[in-house]
Amino acid sequence: MHAAPAVRYPVTRSYPVAVWLAGLCALELALLLAWRAASPQPAPLHAVAFGCWGLATAWVFLAWRGAAVGELGWDGQHWRWEPVRTTAHAPEGVARLHLDLQAHVLVRFVPAQGRAVWLWLERRSGRLPQWHLLRCALHAADGSAGDLVDGQAVVR
């Protein structure tokens, strides 16, 4: 098997995902309102349910807002994640493909040192060749053959 060619691809917050999440939160609110109107349950129970909905909605918004933004790169041998908010050297690591929906992929990047980062990448019309190369690289080096431990590849 040939090694996948080098590629770099930008990672941004997904606005379609934000719209989908907002719609889901709105649907949950509508269901809560319908339950409240049709339910003889006491008011404190409704208050708890609406409070839980508010906390969950705030958590979803903050999680989306804090989503990783940067650039994922494959140099033909190593994966690198370069977050936008740092000037530090981009660490090498292992990128593992967890979900491939053709136009969207969910990737977990695990650096040799530090915390893992979940990345939601989307195909962009102006970057179709890079998208294809990125998916090829993710499938060719999906992390199933090995992991990076203390800078060394470890085969499982």
What global shape is seen? elongated
Number of strands: 8
Report, as a whole number of angstroms, the end-to-end distance: 19 Å
For the sheet with most strands, the description reads: 6 strands, antiparallel
Overall structural domain count: 2
Q: In the CATH scheme, what's the topology name of the largest domain?
A: PH-domain like
How do the strands line up in the largest sheet? 1-2-3-4-5-6
Structural class: alpha+beta
Low-confidence stretches: 144-156
- Residue share in helices? 25-40%
Radius of gyration: 20 Å
What is the arithmetic mean of pLDDT?
Answer: 86
Order of helices and strands, N to C? EHHEEEEEHEE
Helix count, DSSP H or I runs of 4 or more residues: 3
CATH class annotation of the largest domain: Mainly Beta
Which range does the strand content fall in?
25-35%
CATH architecture verdict of the largest domain? Roll
What does this structure look like?
- The chain has 156 residues and is of the alpha+beta class.
- The chain has 2 domains: 82 residues, PH-domain like; 51 residues.
- Helices cover 38% and strands 29% of the residues.
- A 6-stranded antiparallel β-sheet has the order 1-2-3-4-5-6, covered by helices on one side. A two-stranded antiparallel sheet has the order 7-8.
- The longest helix is centred in the first third of the chain and has 24 residues.
- The radius of gyration is 20 Å and the shape is elongated.
- The two termini are 19 Å apart.
Structural key phrases:
single chain, Toxin CptA, elongated, six-stranded antiparallel β-sheet, alpha+beta, 2 domains, disordered C terminus, two-stranded antiparallel sheet, 156 residues
